[in-house]
Each structure stands twice: as structure tokens, then as C-alpha cells.
Design goal:
This is BAHD acyltransferase DCR. This protein is α+β, with helices and mostly antiparallel strands. It contains 13 helices and 15 strands. It has two domains: about 200 residues, Chloramphenicol acetyltransferase-like domain (Chloramphenicol Acetyltransferase, 2-Layer Sandwich); about 190 residues, Chloramphenicol Acetyltransferase (2-Layer Sandwich). The termini are far apart.
């Protein structure tokens, strides 16, 4: 009987694909080619960037009507964001670019049904790995954009709502561009605007115009089946969402700033720096690091206002760089939070136009395609940002009940920050960690701000 019950349960939460179509811009664009630049290329061996948004059904309109409305809005928004309807391509010198032509397929839209899953089940604090089937392109490398759509959207009818799973090619755009696209699409669908209010700035060569020829063979081979059979068995990972209220965030910031480090002219620590050191310290504790063990903190920082000349917020592409800093666990844990916060602050502030240019030149001289797990030993790596207005993405049937990252690009120490669902200065923190360490973190009352 137990087997029968388990079978019924699996059937209830099963996701059934009911249709697949492609959406193109609503007008003819013609042939367009846009070179990928140094800020884009390191992410070719990352996986597609996945986002999951879910909405309660408000009873107005059937699922099919909502899907049609989304597709109509998508046709309009793609008139400006047409690159997402294209493919990766190469020129005669093997330099990668985004190619768009009117005869290309466009954006993939998958329709699915999972009427055994409720919206409340998706709002839990555990990770999204149990809901992988709601998001397309699991385990698909960005490099596969040479022959796959650069954006795939899966719309799943739930028992009491809609799940929208999106997979964006990370070699083509970063988080700022992702949410610029999503908010523009939502504004068209909900009637706020009939066209894109802030068109994307599409000329990447204004940020960097160095043509880099890449050897992609290591990327292709490391994605082969043989690679997965080598090395020790993978440690069990767990994903968890931690919600920090406005009061908790304010308290974390106050603690970081309560014992200023012995440094001339250091500024007050920002909310990000304060929360970052809070996470870094407690993750390091949960990992039982020895005082002499090194730990790396990495943040994928937006460089739009750091480059010279600065680029507009509407710059479409990747204009992020990983900023790394390392310290001994003892220094981090045996001192007040301000010491670790200062390490992070200095690393971020020193990453100016000159540092960015030097990093680019060094990479162009010896290009290295990063794998998403190259963030460093005992690392804490932070992506996404609570500044992204993810809860404003309203397609006409209310704000999302939740916004999460998919299972792609997760490794031990990967952190995604989101605007908190409770609003104000609250922040949601998604963390992936080795299971044993996660168990300790979950019980750490100081980390959870329960003391």
C-alpha cells in the first residue's frame, strides 16, 4: 500500500507539458549582430540563469487567457529586447556575438499543468530543487545558446495559481538586464504602458570593444558525460531561504557599525556590507573552519556606474564582475563584525574603473572561461540584489507571492539576495550549502537574529 500511496503523491505533484510554441517580436527587425564583450564571455560555462515567480490565481480569466496575454505582451517587449529572440553566433574570426534575424524561432514558451501543486507549497523556505520541473533548461550551459533559444519561459497552471519559470542565457545578460526586461514585459501586460518605457541600451562595445577569440573546447569537454564520472562523489547540498525582517536587517547593520575598525576615514558600513559579513561569519562557523583556514568572499558587482565612461542603468548585457577577497577564518570570527565588513568594503571600493580595466586586460591576454564553482576555497559568493524590484513584476493579476532562483549555478556557498517579501528594508537570503553545515546554520540563533 505504501508504494501505491507514494505513486499517487508523485502523480499529484507531477508537471505535465501540454504545449510548446515560440514568440517573436511583433514587428520585423531585420538582421542584427551584436558582439559579446569581455564582460559577457567569462559566463559561457555557467548555466542558464533561472528564476521562478509564482502568482495566486485571482479568478479573473482562465489560464489559457493569461498565457495569451503574456504572449501578446512578449511580442511587444521583444520589439526592443529582440536579442533575447536570437541565438549565439560567431563571426569569421570565431568571435562570439548575439545574432538576430526575423526567421529565427524567437523565445520558447512552454505550457504545463501541475494541478496537484499549490502556491503555498512553493512559498516554503526549502530550496527549489524539488520543483525543478517548473523551470526550463536545468543543467544547460550558456554555450548551448549557439543552437537553443536565449530565453525559455515555462508557464505552469497550479492548483490555485500560476508558476512562471524563466531560463535566461547568462552570457547575454545579467541580473539588472533580466529585471529590466521582466518589469518592461509586466508593464505592457498590465496596461501601465503600451510599449517599453525605458528601451535597452544595446551597444555593448561602448562598455568594452576588444575582440576576443576563445578556445571553447575545454568547455565542451567538461560538459561531457565522462567528466561527471570522475573525481569523488559529490557532497549532498541543501538550499534554504532565510528571511530577514526590516528590524533584523537594521540590527545587523547597527552591530556592524557599533565597533568601528581602527581605520582612518572608513565610511559607515552599508546594509549590503553589514549583511554580507553577517552571512560570511556564520557560514564559516557552520563549516567548522579552523582559525588558519582561508575563506573567500565573492560578490558579483554591477559595474555600470564604475566603468569610465559610466554606462546607463538600461545597458543590456553583462556589466558585472566578480570581486574576490580572502581572509583567515580566525581573523573573521575572533574579531567584531566590523573587521570582516571592512575587508569587504575595501574590496568593493577599490574595484574602480582602473581596476576593472586592468582585470579586463589581464583576462583578454589569457582568457579563462569560468565554471560557476570557481569562486574559491570555503567561499561565500553573492549574486542578485535586494535592489531589484522583483515584487513589482505584476502582469495584471497581482504581485508575485514569491520569487526564487532555480537549481542552476548553485554550489556550496552560493547566496542569492532578494527584496524581502514583507517589504521595506527586509531581505530574503537564499543559501546553498553542504547539508551538515546547513543543519548547523539553521540552528544558529545569532545568525537567525533570534537572540
Amino acid at each position: 500500500m505504501a508504494g501505491v500511496e507514494a505513486g499517487k503523491e508523485e502523480e499529484a505533484t507531477a508537471v505535465r507539458i501540454t504545449g510548446k510554441s515560440h514568440v517573436k517580436p511583433g514587428k520585423l527587425i531585420g538582421r542584427k549582430e551584436c558582439q559579446l564583450v569581455t564582460f559577457d564571455l567569462p559566463y559561457l560555462a555557467f548555466y542558464y540563469n533561472q528564476k521562478l515567480l509564482f502568482y495566486k490565481s485571482d479568478g479573473c480569466g482562465e489560464f489559457e487567457d493569461k498565457v495569451e496575454k503574456l504572449k501578446e505582451g512578449l511580442r511587444v517587449v521583444l520589439e526592443e529586447f529582440y536579442q533575447l529572440g536570437g541565438k549565439l553566433g560567431k563571426d569569421d574570426d570565431e568571435v562570439l556575438r548575439v545574432d538576430y534575424d526575423d526567421d529565427m524561432d524567437g523565445v520558447e514558451v512552454v505550457e504545463a499543468v501541475a494541478e496537484g501543486i499549490t502556491v503555498d507549497e512553493l512559498t516554503g523556505d526549502d530550496g527549489t530543487s524539488s520543483f525543478k520541473d517548473l523551470i526550463p533548461f536545468n543543467g544547460v550551459l550558456n554555450l548551448e545558446g549557439l543552437h537553443r533559444p536565449l530565453l525559455s519561459i515555462q508557464l505552469t497552471k497550479l492548483k490555485d495559481g500560476i508558476a512562471m519559470g524563466c531560463a535566461f542565457n547568462h552570457a547575454v545578460l545579467d541580473g539588472t538586464s533580466t529585471w529590466h526586461f521582466m518589469s518592461s514585459w509586466a508593464q505592457i501586460c498590465n496596461g501601465t504602458s503600451s510599449s517599453v518605457v525605458v528601451p535597452p541600451f544595446l551597444d555593448r562595445t561602448k562598455a568594452r570593444n576588444t575582440r576576443v577569440k576563445l578556445d571553447l573546447s575545454p568547455v565542451v569537454s567538461c560538459n561531457g558525460d565522462d567528466a561527471t564520472k570522475q573525481g569523488p562523489p559529490a557532497r549532498q547540498m541543501r538550499e534554504k531561504l532565510f528571511r530577514f525582517s526590516e528590524a533584523a536587517v537594521d540590527e545587523i547593520k547597527s552591530r556592524a557599525n557599533s565597533t568601528p575598525p581602527p581605520s582612518d576615514g572608513s565610511k559607515q558600513f552599508s546594509t549590503f556590507q553589514s549583511l554580507a559579513v553577517h552571512i560570511w561569519r556564520h557560514v564559516s562557523q557552520a563549516r567548522n573552519l579552523k582559525p588558519e583556514d582561508y575563506t573567500v568572499f565573492t560578490v558579483f558587482a554591477d559595474c555600470r556606474k564604475r566603468v569610465d565612461p559610466p554606462m546607463p542603468d538600461s545597458y543590456f548585457g553583462n556589466l558585472i564582475q566578480a570581486i574576490f577577497t580572502a581572509t583567515a577564518a580566525g581573523l573573521l570570527l575572533e574579531n567584531p563584525p566590523s573587521i570582516g565588513a571592512l575587508v569587504i568594503q575595501k574590496a568593493i571600493e577599490s574595484h574602480d574603473a582602473k581596476a576593472i580595466d586592468e582585470r579586463n586586460k589581464a583576462w583578454e591576454a589569457a582568457p579563462k572561461i569560468f565554471q560557476f564553482k570557481d569562486a574559491g576555497v570555503n567561499c561565500v559568493a553573492v549574486g542578485s540584489s535586494p535592489r531589484f524590484k522583483v515584487y513589482e513584476v505584476d502582469f495584471g493579476w497581482g504581485k508575485p507571492v514569491g520569487v526564487r532562483s532555480g537549481s542552476n549555478n548553485r554550489f556550496d556557498g552560493m547566496v542569492y539576495l532578494y527584496q524581502g517579501k514583507s517589504g521595506g528594508r527586509s531581505i530574503d537570503v537564499e543559501i546553498t550549502m553542504e547539508a551538515q553545515a546547513m543543519e548547523k546554520l539553521e540552528k544558529d540563533k545569532e545568525f537567525l537574529m533570534e537572540v
